[in-house]
Each structure stands twice: as structure tokens, then as C-alpha cells.
Amino acid sequence: MRFFEHQAQARAKTTRLVVLYGLGVLFLGLLSGLAIHFALSFDGSTLDNMSEAHFSLVATGAIGTWGVVLLGSAIRTMRLGQGGRVVAESLGGTLLNHQTADLAEKRALNVVEEMALASGMPVPPVYLLRRETSINAFAAGWSPDDAVIGLTRGAVEHLSRSELQGVVAHEFSHILNRDSALNMRMLGVLHGIVALSLVGRFLMTVRSSNRKRDAAPFAMIGIALWLLGSVGAFIAELIQAAVSREREFLADASAVQFTRDPTGIAGALAKIGLVSSYLGSSAARPANHLLIAEASPPGFFDRASHPPLKERIRRLVPSWNTSLCSPLGATSLGSLGGGSFGLASGAMGFSGATHAQGGSADLRDASDEPNLSPFQGTQRHMIDGAREPYFARLLLLAASLDENLEARNAQLANLELADPSIAGLLPSIHQNYLAVPPGERLPLIDLALGTLAALSRRQADELYLLLEQARAGLSPFAHRAFAVLRLGQRHLVPPGQLQQRTHGSPSDRAEAIACLLGVLARRGQKSETQAASAFAHGKSRLAHLVPELAFPAPRALTLDALDRALLTLLEAPLSERRSVLDALESVASFDGVLKPLESELIHTFAVCLNVATRTRLIETEPGAVT
């Protein structure tokens, strides 16, 4: 399939629909002002004899309408501000951990872990909707740092490993493309429009001493606002559903980009058609657009928030026999026992082993063991430890220690004052971390960061402060330890509580961009000449933003300068930050090899700038700078 073309089409349509969404809210305010005008003209006043107060009330009504929508949206958004776990828990999800003895749950955790490491993001918490026997899944959260993956019991039991990989890859694309954040914002706006109808209902009940005349304007305004809010919410749901449908096509295409196997996600969608995707939770309808398939029956006038399953499958695998994707009931899966499922003769198919009798996935193929492809030389106890919260905490601190002995001792002294119970454990863990192959260190840290999502708010704050103590002892040019430290701190910051941004001038931004490119060029290349050429290679991608960039001297690339640069660029528009990331990737690709340290720095810069990274691929070169 031409998934890059589908991605471009979906993004373009989504932009148009979001603009339409905003215009609709603006139009509601204008209509409410018009409604107030007619209500105040109830006594037969003409345009000539209307007072200035009349028009002031009309303007106040329009502004008040926008205020109600904004206030209602803000309240709802604040409630969602704790991240994806709020949505998962509202749907009845429970957090899974690797201590589970259930093979299906263990396999689901391993698949999520594999996809996270492949996509270069922390492993998100996995929530299981135990009471839901239908097949469905969702991703929720404002960013990769607070995102969660949710799976129904039916999904982990009925889907084969390849199908589950396709579903999880679909949800990861929602996180990386910021779809989940867009969905949460739109949910907040919808709540604000609904609040408008609630205000209208209140005004309809207003009574005054003169029931015949004075109450009439209030009743008319109330009726108008109630109608506007109701119709506005309906239209907003239509637009929201249209946006969601386009993002689903994009996520399907991205899932193929992740897995390189269109039959996995297509097979999962076909099984959804055979079983069901509807949830029993009362919170399912508001969260419908967050899930991979409809969580509740669509309403009137095509308010379905997902494209038809047959159309989605046909885009993924044109040769698929979509006549098998009918809602025949869960028992229909029992007929899938052997042979290909839904594919024309000669096309890629599924073996009978992947579709066990009764529709349950076959768990006898050692799929309870994780696919540790990123970890070829890492000791198993380090991998298992990264999945345990206490050790993951120590691992992050140990990885933040300076390789310079004097600086490392200063860090350990700071940490011992802050928490004497851990300082003595860090040196040995630090040595074990250095024994991990350079190309496998970042995946190990990502694994640990996902585990740290289980920390309480108090524990996360304590770890953040410990990392700050470690930062105080770093030598000025310890870029590797700095990258791990800032990556960990960024992950521990609560959603919506980013560090205060620095509002810099265009020259400040140019200096910040030069700092990032300079650090990457000098740390990734062996000689001054190669570093300068790599810097120029990246600079050429930014000619439309900053025509002139000077190659910084080594002494200018301190950790303090790097911190200032990241804060300065964080306030830049998203398009500019993406351009900077593209330039950084050009610097790293100058010699045709992405080295581990370059990957770590790019990943950290992208996370600190709140820009999604691309799928990570480490290629080491003998003798290369690591």
C-alpha cells in the first residue's frame, strides 16, 4: 500500500477540519449575539431607537458565549491534565505488570515493549479492560511521557501476535503523531459547547416579578442558547468524528510503516468485524474517538468516529476478502481454524497456528518471552531490573553519572547527602551500565523510563530532585550523562508543568540552534574538519529559518549553554522545532552512520523540544565515536 501518500492526505484533511472546528465555535458566539438582539427587540423596538446599552448587551452576550465555551473547555481539560491514566481508569482499566502469570497478558506487555523500543520512546503503561470481551484498544495522553496503552480482554485473547503488533503499532502512531493530544483537546472543546446548552437551560427557568413581560427575554435567550449549544455540540461531534476518521486512516498507514506487515493490522480489523468492538463502560461514548474501533453504536446522521472496517482493510490489503468481515458474533472465530483468513489465493495469509480454535490466539509458541532484538549484548539481569521500579530508579541515576572520576565522586557526594541509602549502590550499577553495548543503552533507558510511570507523584518528585543533585556535579562537557539525565527529568515532569520557557529574540534562537548542531557535530565526528562539514550539512536544511549560523567553538558548548538552548527553542513554533530536528538528523547522517551517542543526543533534544522522533535505527561503526 502507498502509506506515505495516505499519511499526507490524512494530515491535510485533518488541518481543514480543525480549522472548521474553530470557525464553528466563533460562529456560535455571533449567533448568540444575534439571538440576544432579537430577544431584546421583543417589545417591538426598531433599529433606529435601540439604545447603546442594547448593543452592549448583544456584544456582551457574544463574548459571554465564547467565555462559557472556553471556561467549560478549560475545566474539562484540567481534569484530563493528569495524563492518559485518567482515561484508562475511567474505562475500567487496571495496570498490568510483568509479574503477571497470565500468558496473554505477558505477551501483550512484551508486544508493547517491543514497539516502544522500536519507535524510540519510553515503554508506556499498559491497562487491561478486564471486563470487556470485545476487541478494542486505545492510546491516551498528552505526550509520549504520560501516554498509556489500553487493551480489552478480548484483544489480548483473540488476536495473534502479529495482529496484536499491528494494533499496538496503530496506537503508538496516535501517540507519536500527537493524535491523542488532539483528541483530548477536542474533547475539552466539546464539553465547553455542551456547557453552553446548560447555561441556556438555566436561563429558561428564570422567573421575575413580572412573569408576562420581564421573563420573556430571559426565556427566549435561554431557548436560543440551549438550541445553539445542542446544535453546536451535534455539529462539533460530526467534525470530531470526521477528524477521527482521517486520523484512523493515518494510524493504519503508520502501523504498516512500523511493522512492515499490512496483514497484521488488517487481520485484527477483520476479527473486530467478526466479534465486536463495543464496550460496556458508560464512559465509552465520550472516549469513542480514542479507540481503534467504535466503542459504542454510532448515532444518527453518520456520527461514526471511525471509517468502515471494510474500507480500512481494503486500503491496507486490496486483495482481502472483506465479505468475511461481518458481525456474525464471537462464535464465528471458531471457523478460522486453518488456512488463510480473508486473503485471496496467492496473497500473504495466516497459518492455522495463529488462529487457534475458538478464536483465541495460540500462546504455545513461546510468545510469553519478549523479543529482545534491541538487546543482543546486554546482561539479562539489567533488562529484568529495568522493568522493576526500584532498580529502574537506580539505573537512571547510575546512567547519569559522569565518566570523569572526579566529577563522578562529586555527584555521589551530592547524592549521599540527599539519600544515603542509594549512593553506595550506584557505582556498581554504573559499571554494569557501561558494560552494556553503546547501541543498547538508550533502549535500556527507555525501558526503565516506562517502568518509572508506576511511581507515585511523591516518588517521581523525589527522583527528579535526585537527578538535579546529580546534574550539579557534572563536568561542563559531559554530554552523554547530561542526555540521560535530562531525558529522565523530562519524563518525570507532570503533564502541563513544563519548565518555564525562555522568550528569546531571533538572534537567541539562531545561537541556540547553532549550539545543538555544534554539540552533535563535535561529539559525532572524529576531527575538526569532519565536524565542521557535518555542521554545514545540517545548517543547509535551515536556510529558510536562519541564513547565517556560525560553527561554535568547543568551549562554548557547555551543559549550561545546552540547557539555555533547549529552553529558548522550546518556545519556537512547532514547525520550526521540527525543522531543527531534521537539521540534527542531517548532521548525524553526514557520514552515513548513526552512532549511539548521536542517537542519544537527538532523542533527548527531541523529547526536550516536545517533537516526535522517528523510528530509531542504530548502526555502529568500528572505531566510531560512541
Radius of gyration: 28 Å
Number of E-type strands: 4
Largest sheet: 4 strands, mixed
- Estimate percent helicity: 55-70%
- What CATH architecture of the largest domain would you give? 2-Layer Sandwich
Quickly count the domains.
4
Query: Which percent band covers the strand fraction?
Result: under 5%
The CATH C-level name of the largest domain is Alpha Beta
What global shape is seen?
globular
Low-confidence stretches: 327-341, 343-359, 364-368, 615-626
State the separation between the terminal residues, measured CA to CA: 37 Å
Strand order of the largest sheet: 1-2-4-3
* CATH-assigned fold name of the largest domain: Zincin-like
Treating each run of at least 4 consecutive H or I residues as one helix, how many helices?
A: 23
Q: Which structural class fits the helix and strand makeup?
A: mainly alpha
Q: What are the secondary-structure elements, in order, as H or E?
A: HHHEHEEEHHHHHHHHHHHHHHHHHHH
CATH homologous superfamily assignment of the largest domain? Metalloproteases ("zincins"), catalytic domain
What is the average of the pLDDT values?
79
Task: Record keyword descriptors for this entry.
about 625 residues, single chain, Zincin-like, about 0% strand, 4 strands, disordered C terminus, mainly alpha, four-stranded mixed sheet, 4 domains
Explain what you see.
This protein has 626 residues and is mainly α. The chain folds into 4 domains: 3-85 and 182-250, no CATH class; 88-178 and 261-331 and 353-359, Zincin-like (2-Layer Sandwich), CATH 3.30.2010.10; 384-492, no CATH class; 506-608. It has helices at residues 3-40, 52-79, 84-90, 103-119, 153-158, 161-176, 179-204, 215-259, 262-274, 309-316, 380-386, 389-399, 405-418, 420-423, 426-435, 438-451, 457-472, 479-492, 506-524, 528-539, 559-570, 574-588, 596-608, and strands at residues 94-95, 126-129, 137-140, 148-152. The protein has a 4-stranded mixed β-sheet. A hairpin with a 7-residue loop joins β3 (137-140) and β4 (148-152). α1 packs antiparallel against α8. The protein is globular. The model is unreliable at 327-341, 343-359, 364-368 and 615-626 (pLDDT under 50).
